[in-house]
Design brief:
alpha+beta; six-stranded antiparallel sheet; three-stranded antiparallel sheet
Length: 228
């Protein structure tokens, strides 16, 4: 996507002179780069940050291989997701798509998603500390509904969340939380499957695999945090 300075000034509601100065600084630091016709696009620094994240993020390093292993055990088309809580949004940081999958999940890498919809998000929401949950719930009327809170309590007791069609039609999401001692909930691992390929017994088996994958990631993170 390309941006023009006048368009940025209009969208931000600030003088063009302010935008020109800011853009000049961003270009100098490689956050933006000049394109044709006085337009700008995102700069190389975002590619550098992406590489740095892949090399240094413990969750991404630990979870990517586990996600690959879990998806590899599935005998139906599926999409595996590793997602993290960022403030009041959930964002996918890694995904794994089985060879026969002909669908994609809306949880695209880098796309912010709501906390109150979908198994991938709700399993995180269900494990938030009460104080943080109540603070966030002030902005979500649905989160204060007794039925919704009862659903989250059941998710917390079961250790897994299962939802159908909440984000994408005709798919089932099965998610487990990734928890860290002392830091609370961190992320979730989930599998997305076509609804017509599932039975109750199969969903139970996938839920168990998902929970085992989450525990494996927790153990890898715990081992990596131990001093040598």
């Amino acid at each position: 996507m390309l941006f023009r300075s006048p368009d940025m000034a209009e969208a931000l509601g600030v003088p063009q002179s302010t935008v020109y100065r800011t853009v000049h600084d961003l270009v100098a630091e490689n956050f933006l780069e000049t394109a044709s016709d006085a337009r700008y696009r995102l700069g190389s620094v975002f590619i550098e940050f992406g590489r740095l994240l892949r090399l240094t993020d413990p969750l991404l390093k630990a979870g990517s291989q586990v996600l690959r292993d879990v998806v590899g055990q599935m005998d139906v088309p599926c999409v595996g997701l590793l997602c993290r809580l960022y403030n009041d949004k959930v964002m996918c940081i890694a995904d794994e798509i089985s060879p026969r999958a002909t669908f994609r999940s809306s949880y695209e890498r880098g796309r912010p998603m709501p906390l109150t919809q979908g198994a991938t998000s709700k399993v995180i929401l269900a494990h938030l500390p009460a104080r943080r949950f109540n603070r966030l719930a002030e902005h979500w009327p649905d989160a204060n509904a007794s039925a919704f809170r009862s659903e989250l309590q059941m998710v917390r007791r079961r250790g897994v969340c299962i939802s159908s069609g909440e984000i994408d039609k005709d798919v089932v999401g099965i998610a487990a939380p990734i928890l860290r001692k002392g830091t609370g909930v961190l992320a979730s691992i989930s599998l997305v499957l076509p609804v017509d390929s599932t039975t109750p017994a199969f969903i139970d088996r996938v839920a168990q695999m998902t929970m085992e994958g989450a525990r494996h990631i927790e153990q890898v993170l715990e081992d990596a945090a131990q001093p040598e």
